[in-house]
Amino acid sequence: MTPPPVNAGMLARDGLRFTLHALDAARARTALMGLAMAIGVAAVIVLTALGEGARQYVLGEFSSLGSSVLTIMPGRSETTGGAPPMLGATPRDLTLDDALSLRHSALIASVAPLVVGDAEVSAGARSRDVMVLGSTAELKSVRHLELARGSFLPAGDPFAGPAVCVIGETLKTELFGTGAAIGELVRIGDRRFRVIGVLATKGQSLGANIDDVAIIPVAAAQALFNTQALFRVLVEVRGRESIPAAKRAIETLITARHEGENDITIISLDAMLSTFDRIFTALTLTVAGIAAISLAVAGILIMNVMLIAISQRTQEIGLLKALGASPRLITRLFLGEAALLSLFGAAAGVAVAYAGLFGLRRLFPSFPLSAPAWAIAAGVGVAVVTGILFGWLPARRAARLDPVQALSRR
Amino acid sequence: MNDAPVIQLDGVSRCFVLGDEEVRALDDVSLSVKRGEYIAVMGPSGSGKSTLLNILGLLDQPSAGHYLLDGTDTTQLSDARQAEVRHRKIGFVFQFFHLIARLTAFENVELPLVLAGVAVDERRQRVQRALDELGLSDRAQHRPDQLSGGQRQRVAIARAAIMDPEVLLADEPTGNLDSASGADVIAILEALNARGITLIVVTHDPDLGSRARRMVRFMDGHVLSDATAST
User: Fold this and answer.
1) How far apart are CA B2 and CA A188, in angstroms?
2) S-S: B14 plus which of A188, A210, A347, B26, CB 3.0-4.6 Å?
3) What is the C-alpha to C-alpha distance for residues A188 and A135, in angstroms, rounded to an integer?
4) How far apart are CA B58 and CA A235, in angstroms?
5) 3-state SS class at A63
6) Is A316's pLDDT higher than 70?
């Protein structure tokens, strides 16, 4: 006869088999609990993916607007100590010459000087007050403008400024109705311009309604508004990574032209982008957190159903005790069951989430949708932890069952 | 085999509180059982014989007194230690079999070995041998609901004996069986006793009780008589 074996404890593999068996024996219960967990996990993953998608979508939109575009403004916004300068604090104007000098830098792809003013635009009896932008042909590429009809400002000597203009869609409709605008003459202020192009509808773009503007050559705008000063200079840098170098190059060039005075401010979209990035990340986390509440609900459901399972399996628990299963082993078995259930549910949830995301991608192909790895890990992790946490109470109740009463039930 | 008693009860009482009434299911019971004995515990229902069996099997604890199993005072042990003692030294046979419905006969018999963490190969050998001995080899892969009552009880006995316990406790083992299968079951239990396992059978069937060499009668929580047949 072999000596009685020492109670070394159940082998992990046997525990797993026993638990799987128990889950298999109560399929409806297993399926329902798994479903609850699956919904929770799928919600976390899909909502996180949506938040991530929104973040990437917005960042993408801004990047297409030109995250490699720098805006140069006259004047320097900074706080310095010391006495105010003797000869007035008004900054030196940015001139067209300043802008054109930037073309010499190898880091800069294109330069669009900008003069902005309000003027009345009229054609025949109709007139409308709109924003008038004075610039060059390069504005089109820097601001990613598209034309519905005709052509943009011609390239050529920026100082010449032929009397042509490009108008926005709204302005075109206001002045010409449904008729053709190309080739017509309009009056802007006290000058006459020939319409050579109509902009494609783009709507609001970084604070300006691009549908309701007239764009004329920069020299014409300077004459119209009687100024030599530029409102802004837009610079497109060759590649995002050379932005810092380009900034330094611009400062050096302008400082040299402004008698050693660094009196410009350069802002990039990067700063704005990182702000949006932070906002959307916070939003995604919030949404994921709300979705995680459904996991807690699923956890409570698991607790409930485990309690029912234990009352249904009272006799089995009594038997396990009679066969010498320690309270700890019984706790482990039932905890394992809750954990395994959550794991099944979580796996199903991941599958459901992927199916859902696949469907959404088919519906909205332009919207970037993909579940970040951390969201999947977090969803599954939270599900299993919830299962174990809420499985604890039922498991302990099972371990504490009085075997005599458990066995006397039939 | 040594002569020290395998079971020693000293002044064991067990009280239950039902409402505001105290019921003494066992009242100052002392009993000594030698290794390898065959005892029938008899008495009407409510006489305390089931409570005695639960205490002997460490499923229940006495309210007062001491219970020494194999020389160890079990009343001092923790839950976990009691589970271990139950695991290694005690086998149960119940009136209602208490087989796990979702497991096959083989798996039911295997369960104590599984709980002990015995290796798969050894388990398979031992279970197979036990099933062979009880003529259940061809039923190994059947679930309890595919077995007759007598077969179920034989599976339960195989499970109780698989750990080679010191003591086999049987609570009305034939109570749910027809007389033919009942006789089978008793024969198997007696065969195990012949191998040296201490057998304690609780029953109210006088025919069954009279087969035991020693008969302990219970009434109202007291030992009414304790007679050893002369052989």
Assistant:
1) 122
2) B26
3) 15
4) 88
5) helix
6) yes
How far apart, in whole angstroms, are the C-alpha atoms of residue B214 and residue A353?
69
- Mean residue pLDDT across chain A: 83
A67 with A240: CB under 8 angstroms?
yes
Burial of B179 per CB tally in 10 Å (0-12, 13-18, 19+)? exposed
For residue B37, which amino acid is it?
Answer: E
Question: From start to end of B81-187, where are the E strands?
Answer: 90-93, 167-171
Contact between chains at B102 and A24 (C-beta distance less than 8 A): yes
DSSP A46: H
Residues 263-282 on A with a CB inside 8 Å of B are none
CA A197 – CA A180 distance, rounded (Å):
11
Q: Is B9 helix (H, G, I), strand (E, B) or coil?
A: strand
List of chain B residues with pLDDT < 50:
1
- The angle subtended at Cα A14 by Cα A8 and Cα A18, nearest 5°, is 125
Is residue B59 within 8 angstroms of chain A, CB to CB?
A: yes
Residue among A8, A24, A320 minimizing CB distance to B117: A8
For residue A151, pLDDT over 70 is answered with yes
**In angstroms, what separates the C-alpha of B25 from chain A's closest C-alpha?**
14
CATH of region B36-59+77-228, choose from 3.90.1150.10, 3.40.50.300, 3.90.180.10, 3.90.1150.30: 3.40.50.300
Q: CA of B14: how far to CAs of A48, A406, B68, in Å?
A: 60, 18, 16
Picking from A9, A319, A325, the nearest residue to B100 by CB comes out as: A319
Chain B nearest CA to A305, separation (Å) = 19
Q: Does A315 touch chain B (CB under 8 A)?
A: yes
Among partner residues B89, B96, B115, which is closest to A323 by beta-carbon distance? B115
Could you tell me which of A346, A335, A334 has the C-alpha nearest to residue A383? A346
The burial of A215, by beta-carbon neighbours within 10 Å (0-12 exposed, 13-18 middle, 19 or more buried), is given as buried
> Which one-letter amino acid corresponds to residue B128?
Q
Q: Which helix (H) or strand (E) holds B72?
A: strand B72-73
pTM > 0.80: yes or no: no
CB A233 within 8 A of CB A72: yes
Where residue A2 falls among pLDDT bands split at 50, 70, 90?
Answer: very low
* DSSP codes of every residue in B14-46: EEEEETTEEEEEEEEEEEEE-TT-EEEEE--TT
Maximum CA pair distance of chain B? Answer: 54
Condensed to tens digits (0 to 9), the pLDDT of residues A250-278 reads 988 888 888 888 888 888 777 777 777 88
pLDDT above 90 covers a percentage of chain A that reads 14
Measure the CA–CA gap between A57 and A280, rounded to whole angstroms: 10
Q: With CB atoms and an 8 Å threshold, state whether A5 touches B79.
A: no
Give the burial class of B53: count Cβ atoms within 10 A of its Cβ; 0-12 exposed, 13-18 middle, 19 or more buried: buried
∠ CA(A192), CA(A197), CA(A200), 5° rounding?
135
Q: Does A2 touch chain B (CB under 8 A)?
A: yes
- Where do the structural domains in chain B lie, given as residue ranges? 36-59+77-228
Tokens of A15: 């525990």
Chains A, B: CB contacts within 8 A come to 96
**How far is residue A175's CA from residue A128's CA, in Å, rounded to a whole number?**
8
- In chain A, which residue's Cα lies nearest the Cα of B58? A322
- Of all helices (H) and strands (E), which one includes residue B88? helix B79-89
Distance, CA of A280 to CA of A58 (rounded, Å): 9
Can you read off the two tokens belonging to residue B71?
Answer: 């020389």
